Amino acid sequence: MTGAIPMGGRFTGGAEYTGMFEPVLFAYDSAQVSADQRAKIEAVGSHLKQNSAHAVIIEGHCDERGSREYNLALGEQRALAVRAYLAGLGIGVDRIQTKSYGEERPVVPSHDEAAWSLNRRGEFVLYY
User: Fold this and answer.
1) Which of 3, 25, 53, 79 could pair with 60 as two cysteines, CB 3.0-4.6 Å apart?
2) Does the model's pTM come out above 0.70?
């Protein structure tokens, strides 16, 4: 992937915008994008196609189960899976960065399946 931005880096010279798109949710111990989550990625892809000056950072997250190291790796796999889907939609990989937070940033701090299912996610941060 010539010209690709190193994974985990951040764009510079602009601002980051969170919460503009729904997160992609994942099954337990999985980095596979399920069919019912693809429309969320397609919405981001559509936005990026219409706004060529915008880029996206995909943040991979996990629930609290598993070791810190395992969850950081799984979070990165989730972010890369979303990145690959966006690239398949024709979005240049130079406009996509990934970052894994593992279990460090739960969206719901509870300790049950309802919370865990929301914490297993890929978040979109627009950059422009």
Assistant:
1) 79
2) yes
Amino acid at position 31, single letter: A
Fold of 16-119: 60s Ribosomal Protein L30; Chain: A; (3.30.1330)
3-state secondary structure of 89: coil
Give the closest residue to 56 by CA, choosing from 25, 27, 85: 85
Question: What is the spatial distance between Cα 18 and Cα 4, in angstroms, rounded to a whole number?
Answer: 23
pLDDT digits (tens, 9 = 90+) for 25-77: 999 999 999 999 999 999 999 999 999 999 999 999 999 999 999 999 999 99
95 phi/psi in degrees, rounded to 5: -105, 5
Tell me the C-alpha distance between 98 and 38, whole Å. Answer: 18
CA gap 95, 56 in Å, rounded: 6
- First-to-last alpha carbon distance for the chain, in angstroms, is 22
Identify which of 125, 123, 126 has the alpha carbon closest to the alpha carbon of residue 26.
123
Q: Strand, helix or coil at 100? A: strand
Domain boundaries, the chain: 16-119
